[in-house]
Amino acid sequence: MEEALCKSTAATRSWCKSLPKSELHAHLSGCISKEKIREILRRPENEKLRAKATSLFSPRTSLNLKECFELFPIIHEVINSPAVLREVVFSVLDDFAADNVIYVELRTTPRSSDAFTPQLYISTVLEAVDSYHKEHPNGLLCRVLVSISRHLPVENAREIMKVTEAIMKEIAGTTRADLIVGLELSGNPHRGSWDDFKPIFEDSRRRLHLPISLHFGEVLDDKEANAMLDFRPSRLGHAVVLSDAVATRMITEERNIGVEVCISSNLMTESVTSLQEHPVVTKLLGSRHPFSLCTDDPGILDTTLSEEYARLSECVALSRERVSSIALKGLQLSFCRDENVLESLYRTFFRKLQQACCGENATECTLANIIDRRIPAPQPLRS
Ligand SMILES: CNc1ncnc2c1ncn2[C@@H]1O[C@H](COP(=O)(O)O)[C@@H](O)[C@H]1O
C-alpha cells in the first residue's frame, strides 16, 4: 500500500500538520489509537480480552472490508463501560488536537450491550464531549453525528432515531444542546439495503431537522447509488467505487453534495488500487466538486489527517494555496449551523493558516491572503 499511496516528505508532513484542519468523517471506534487500546487491555479486568484482541495489532499492508468489519466488534468489547467510553472520547479528541485539527465531527453507533443502552451510549458520548470542551476552552471543537449501521436490523435504526429525538428534547437549553449536528448511514456495505433504511432517514430528517451523510459507493452498486442521490443527502462518505454514469451525475447534477474523501481507507480496503486512480484525483480535483479530506478510521489504519493531506498534496503536486483551500472546504462543509460557533472557527482557521504559511509574526502573507476570507453562511439543510 505504501507504494500506491505515495510517500510524503518530512517537510510536507510538517507543513500539513501546521495547517488548521477539519475532520468530517471519523468513526469513534476506528479512531482509538493502538497505544490507547493497549493501555486499556493491560488492565486486570481485561485479561481474557487481551488474547482475542491481538488481531488489532498485527502489522498490515492491506485490510479488506471483511477484515475491517471483524475488528470493530473486538474494539466494541474493549469499550466495556461508560467510564471507558468517556476515556476513549477524550483520548481521540486529544489525538486530533495534537494533529492541529480545529473541528471534528465524530460519528458513532449507539449500541445495546451488557454495558450500554443506546440512550446511555449517546448520553455518555455527549457528556464526554461537553466535559472535554470545558477542560479545553480554547481547544478543538467537537460535534457528533449519530450513526446507523446498515448491517444491523432496521428495527435497531428505528430505536436509535427515537432515542436521539428524546435526548435532543431532554438536552435542549443545556451546554450539550448543540452537540448532535447530524445523522449518518454506515456499516458493512455488503449487507443491508438502502431501500429499507431510507424511510427511517426520511422520517428523521423531517422530525429532527438534522443534515444527513450517507456512506456511498464503497462497493459498486448503481441502483443503490442513484437511489441515494435521489434522497439528496447533505454529504456523501467515500464515493470511491462509482460507475462513470453515477460519477457524472454526482459531479454535474449534485454540485452541492460535499464528498468526504478517505484516501488511505479506500486504498487499504482495496476499493482502489492506487491514489492516481482514486476519484479525488481523477474526478473531484479537476471538477472543483466540493470535498473534504478525512481519515475514516485513523486508529485502525495508522494514519492522521495531516498524513492524508501530505499524501494527496505530494502525490498530485498540489500547491500550498490549493491545499489550504481544501482545508477551508472542510470547514465549509461542516454540519454545524450555529453562526457564532462557525464565525469563531473561521477566525481560528485564518489565524492558524497565517501562522502555518507565514510564521507567527508575519504582518503580510500573500499565501494566506489568496484564500477568500469571507465567512460563508452555514450549509443549508436539504429536504
Ligand atoms: C472502512 N470503511 C467503513 N465503511 C462503513 N462503515 C464503517 C467503516 N469504518 C467504520 N465504519 C462503521 O463504524 C463503526 C465503528 O465505529 P463506532 O462503533 O460506530 O464508533 C463500524 O462498526 C461501522 O459500522
UniProtKB/TrEMBL annotation:
Protein name: Adenosine deaminase domain-containing protein
Coiled-coil boundaries: none
Tagged with keyword Hydrolase: yes
PANTHER family: ADENOSINE DEAMINASE, ADENOSINE DEAMINASE-LIKE PROTEIN
UniProt-listed InterPro entries: A_deaminase_dom, Ado/ade_deaminase, Metal_Hydrolase
Protein keywords: Hydrolase, Metal-binding, Nucleotide metabolism, Zinc
Protein family per UniProt: Belongs to the metallo-dependent hydrolases superfamily. Adenosine and AMP deaminases family.
Cofactor list: Zn(2+)
Gene Ontology terms describing biological process: adenosine catabolic process; inosine biosynthetic process; nucleotide metabolic process
Organism this protein belongs to: Chondrus crispus
SUPFAM superfamilies for this protein: Metallo-dependent hydrolases
Catalytic activity: N(6)-methyl-AMP + H2O + H(+) = IMP + methylamine
Signal peptide: none
Residue ranges constituting the Adenosine deaminase domain according to the UniProt record: 20-340
Superkingdom per UniProt: Eukaryota
Record-level Gene Ontology MF annotations: adenosine deaminase activity; metal ion binding
